[in-house]
Design a protein that fits this description.
single chain; alpha/beta; 6 helices; globular; binds 5-O-phosphono-beta-D-ribofuranosylamine
């Protein structure tokens, strides 16, 4: 059987990436391979790829215009012929070229219960609004900001007095489990 090939995009600490890699190592993501990791900045999480000999790219560093970067991103991703592009804490909007090239094959994880609290500060916005329940969502990526079809969601209850950091850490636990589950289901073609 051919591998189900993923390219993972990150911007930050890469705990979602690490969860995917560890699930593969434990045999919990049968047939799944992370062929490359791509970041928009020299993200700390790239070390999880480099430690394992997985190609790690930061194409933005080499391109001055957004258009060139979008093209470079498509070329870099297409080189690995991914079945799935996983945005795992990738903090930039993808341009039209990426969406055209990989439509239906890009998923994103977001730390709030969409359609509530889209955008870069989903955890903070949920806390500030005063909701009692929040969570994480995995979506199919479209042109909008966190507007794509919802694939899966997990919820948790906000604790009284909880800080943004504490809440985000708890969300990230359920987010990682869900992301691994969604990839497993896609790999099984479910
Ligand atoms: C996740 O909560 C993701 O949803 C958000 O940023 C966080 C990334 O965490 N956009 P990590 O880099 O995978 O640790």
């Amino acid at each position: 059987m051919n591998d189900f090939t993923c390219v993972v995009f990150i911007s930050g600490t890469g705990s979602n990436l690490r969860a995917i890699l560890e699930a593969i190592e434990k045999g919990a993501l049968s047939g799944v391979k992370v062929a490359a990791v791509i970041a928009d900045v020299d993200a700390p999480g790239l070390s999880f790829a480099r430690d394992r000999g997985i190609p790690a790219h930061v194409p933005l560093a080499d391109y001055s215009t957004r258009e060139d970067w979008n093209r470079a991103l498509v070329d870099c991703t297409a080189h690995y012929a991914p079945d799935l592009v996983v945005l795992a804490g990738f903090m930039r909007l993808l341009g039209a070229p990426m969406l055209e090239a990989f439509r239906g094959r890009i998923i994103n994880t977001h730390p709030a219960l969409l359609p509530a609290f889209p955008g870069a500060h989903g955890v903070r916005d949920a806390l500030n609004y005063g909701v009692k329940v929040t969570g994480a969502t995995v979506i199919d990526v479209d042109e909008g900001v966190d507007t794509g079809a919802i694939i899966d969601q997990r919820a948790l209850t906000i604790r009284p007095g909880e800080s943004e950091e504490e809440l985000h850490e708890r969300i990230k636990v359920i987010e990682r489990e869900m992301l691994v589950d969604v990839i497993a289901r896609r790999a099984r073609n479910e």
